[in-house]
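Predict structure. Input: tRNA (guanine(9)-N(1))-methyltransferase, 401 residues.
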Amino acid sequence: MWRRLFFSRPRFLTSLSTANYSLISRQTAARAMLLCADRLLQTLIPSRRCHFNSQFASDNAFGPCPEVGMMDAVLNERSDAGSNAEEDQAQPREEKMSKRAQKKLLKQQKHEARRAVRKAEEKEHKKQEAARKRREWEEKLASVDEEERVKLIDARRGLKKERVEKKREEKAGKIERLRKAKEQGQNIVIDLEFAHLMSPNEISSLTQQIMYCYAMNKRSSSPGHLWLTGIGIDMETQLLKIPGYNNWMIEKESRSYVEALQDWKDDLVYLTADSEVTLDTLDSKKSYIVGGLVDRNRWKGITIKKATEQGIQTAKLPIGAYLKMSSSQVLTVNQVIEILLKFIETGDWKTSFFHVIPQRKRCGADSDAVQEVEQEEDYNGNADKQCEAKVCSDNFKTSAN
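Output follows.
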């Protein structure tokens, strides 16, 4: 190693041209090699002090040596680069996202950007519409005499008062129905003890479904008595983000349904698609449990396993008796709740299923049942198609702009 170090051509000289190398004296070359050796020893043994720098690199010893200064600069740069590399390695590296995750993030960002633009356009449209109506009203008042103007203003105030009174009556009616349902309504429980099995996005999705459930129950003419059990910290954090959640007229329990309804444990029925028992009707004395789980089919059979271990009855909705599903019979939480509420209102499973389950999930059904439902909902279907066509045209105009 030392032989190669002292008798080989120094590395810093490789960058010099052949002509310049021939001009370097032996004394300069020896001086540079000794300095290189000392720097090498300093690298291997950090505690060693430099002995050759002061003797051979000094201007007083052998005179100025620009080549040695060049080598010092190169070695200093390398040492700085090495220290920077060590610092970079000491810092935790950010995990690189996969291509699929990058595409998903980009898609989400584009969706949020489009939603922001759409909201801004809707806000601007409402603002312009309000300004137009205000302008038309002022022009109408300016075109009539004083007596007619007073009549128009009084009539408008009367209409506004009627609308406010109607809304107040509707709100009071909803509150009264929910109060009665809390006393003698059908108990429907949403089990929220699966939060630890879900990702943050799935918990957020479940929160939205619970919000839909409460809104549907509030609008229903025959609402049920809703329970939220097993509310953990993560779930409660998301639920508290819903406006007005603290004022909901439902039961909120951090305990499990077994503890919260321990006096009625024999009347608990867990609704799961994996059950062998088919539900014929709803018993007002029983409490029906719906699993609050958004798992994208990762945890198959987890609800029936939990109910079996707890010794609770299980049942499934009679979907197969009225229609065939294109995939599994697993529905979202809000779809199950809406089916139960619709059955409480109508007492008919067929009407409940065809009213809630979307067409894309249906593979086939009895032709008579399909024809009957289509005849009953012909007007609603045409109205829905017109709405869909309008939405599609609006989306096309937005994308074109």
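The mean pLDDT is 76.
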